[in-house]
Amino acid sequence: MRQVIQAAAATFALDQVSKVLVVHVLDLYSRQEIAVLAPWLNFRMAWNRGINFGLLSSSEDLGRWALIALALAIAGWVWLWVRRERHSRIVQLSAGLLIGGAMGNVIDRLIYGAVADFLNMSVPGFDNPYSFNVADIAIFAGAFGLVLFTGREKTP
Question: Which of 68, 66, 62, 60 is nearest to 115 (CA)?
């Protein structure tokens, strides 16, 4: 379980530090866009009130609290599930990534009312309109790891 806690804490910290640095220190909040390695990587400010790509987006407080409750329920379920049995290190790492990422986005919803997304990747000739953050990457990687590696080996 220590590996789950460490992965979750590191993911949460990396997510929150990256948001403070980019949104506040680099002032992306006011600037709205910073070309880093255009067009491949840009910082583009987006306040996501929904889930991925703005799905289930709502300006109502009820939607915000429902998404907070959903993230907490999923993270709690993953935590209880991974505690119940012995799992491989990769499964524990995956669980920690998912939990840490979910908690990072929950904190954003509590503080800002929306998730701070700022990473934008495009290619020449195609401008991707969507932004994401470190927590989103961790949630995706964690969920993918849980699906891919659960049940393969049960030894930590």
Answer: 68
